[in-house]
Amino acid sequence: MTNYFDPKIIGRIKNLDLRSMRLVQSFSSGMHKSKIIGISTEFAQHRQYVPGDEIKHIDWKVYAKTDKYYIKQYEAETSMVTYFLIDTSASMFFQSEDAGMSKFDYAATAASSVMFMIQDQKDTFGCALFDDTVHTRLPAKGSKGHYHNCNELLSNAKPVKATNLTDSLMNIAPQIGPPGMLIVISDFIDVDDRLGLALGQLNFMGHDVMMFRIEDPLERDFSSSGQTIFIGPENEGKLLCDPRDLRSAYLKVREEHIEDLRGVCRRNGFGIEDMYTDTPLDATLSSILAARLARRSSR
């Protein structure tokens, strides 16, 4: 069984506050009573201030000693729920010779690392796997046992069927509960015209969405040469050809597909980030999360 827990990656991202990366304006409507760190009456701990936090919660005594802004946190109010929706279609298990791991292993390691960060910040997370529908789901919790269960779910995942991202998004949306965050990790190869409708529904419901597009270096560069048999991972058939004859056309179609995908996400208020399996995940993930925090802070 694959172990997706990676201390190196967690060490790079553990001090980033996922809660502070939310871009959807209706975040406050997602707060609810729980025995989780929040802002109420019984002091629990401090966390560093980020733009957007209410100034009234700054601890000025700490500022006087450290010259840094910290927010007082108290027990009782608010837990942010984050759901991970991870693609398990056959194409996600592809790995070329130049890739450090398969697309699914890359996605699962990224998800496991962010889950650990969320657990460490006393928030809750759930995990769902999808192909042409959401076929496995663990509801949101925040315990160490739940983190182990999510990792076990990822470790036991098998390539199945083709992808239907739109239906999967529509299926998971009402299960998230109060407005929270949805992290979608997929290669986004097969996306239909209804994706905008699904993203619009998520936006209307107050959910924030982070989308990670995973790509193998061979898919990105199409750099093979010589007679090659290409086999469609999701029952598209076989093709014998020299990739050099198709490279220009392939790269053009690929770029158009990515631009269309970005446009749909942008029109619905969400962004999509690229991840390549030949790039160290710790650097990629920390860069993406830090950049998102910077965008939120500039609003």
Report on this structure.
The chain has 299 residues and is an alpha/beta fold. The chain has two domains: 226 residues, von Willebrand factor, type A domain (Rossmann fold, 3-Layer(aba) Sandwich); 45 residues, no CATH class. It contains nine helices and eleven strands. Helix 3 links the parallel strand 4 and strand 5. The protein is globular.
List low-confidence stretches.
25-41
CATH class (first level) name of the largest domain: Alpha Beta
**Looking at CATH, which topology of the largest domain would you report?**
Rossmann fold
Residue-averaged pLDDT: 84
Major sheet: arrangement of strands? 6-5-4-7-8-11
Which class best fits the helix and strand makeup? alpha/beta
E-strand count: 11
String of helices and strands: HEEHEEHEEHHEHEHEEHEH
Mind telling me the CATH superfamily name of the largest domain?
von Willebrand factor, type A domain
**Number of DSSP helical runs:** 9
Terminal CA distance reads 43 Å
| Share of residues in helices | 25-40%
| Rg from Cα | 20 Å
The main β sheet shows up as: 6 strands, mixed
Measured by DSSP, the beta-strand proportion falls in: 15-25%
CATH A-level architecture of the largest domain: 3-Layer(aba) Sandwich
Which descriptor suits the 3D outline?
A: globular
Q: List the domain count as a whole number.
A: 2
